[in-house]
Amino acid sequence: MNEEQTENLFAYGTLQTEAVQFSLFGRRLDGKEDALPQYRLTIVRIEDEEFVAASGSADHRNLEFTGNPSDFVAGTALAVTKSELLRADAYEPAGYTRTLVQLRSGLNAWVYLDNRSATSDSLFQQTEVGDRR
Fold it and tell me: What phi and psi values does residue 70 have, to the nearest 5 degrees?
C-alpha cells in the first residue's frame, strides 16, 4: 500500500475530536458517520499517564462485543493513510489492540479495543498497539 492509499479507522471516542486529530495527524481527518453493530460502549480507566495527559481524561470509551443485533456503537469511519494508522497505533495506550471489523455500512475498518474486550467472534485481523512512544 502506498502512502496515498487510505484505510478506514472507526473512531468512537477521542479520535473523533478535532484537537486529537490535529495533535496526531496535523489535520482534520475526512470521515463518514457509521456504526459498529453487535457492540456496546463501556468505560475503562486508563493508567498510562502520557495517554491521560494527551487525551485529557483517565476514563475512556471502550467497546464490548455483545453479539446482540440490536446493539450498536455510533462513530465515524475516518480515512487514514498507512503512516497515520501507525501514529494512531502509537497514540493508543498499552493494552489496546487494533482490530479489523465490518461496520453497518459494509465498510471494513480498523477499531481499537481494550484487550479485555477483544473477541475472536467478530474479528478479521488483530494488531497489538500502544506504548510505542
Answer: -85, -10
Say which DSSP state 70 is in: T
How confident is the model over 23-73, as pLDDT tens digits? Answer: 999 999 999 999 999 999 887 666 667 766 766 666 767 888 999 999 999
Cα 83–chain centre separation? 15
Annotate 78-132 with DSSP letters as a single string: EEEEHHHHHHHHHHSPTTEEEEEEE-TTS-EEEEEEETTT--TTS-S-EEE-S--
Take residue 104 and report the three cell numbers written for it. Answer: 453497518
Domains, the chain, ranges and CATH? 6-128 (3.10.490.10)
Q: Which residue in the block uniquely carries the three cell numbers 499517564?
A: 49
Handedness of CA 8, 9, 11, 15 (dihedral sign): negative
DSSP state at residue 58: S
Rounded to two decimals, the pTM is 0.78
Amino acid at position 115, single letter = N
- CA-angle at 63, arms to 62 and 65, nearest 5°: 155
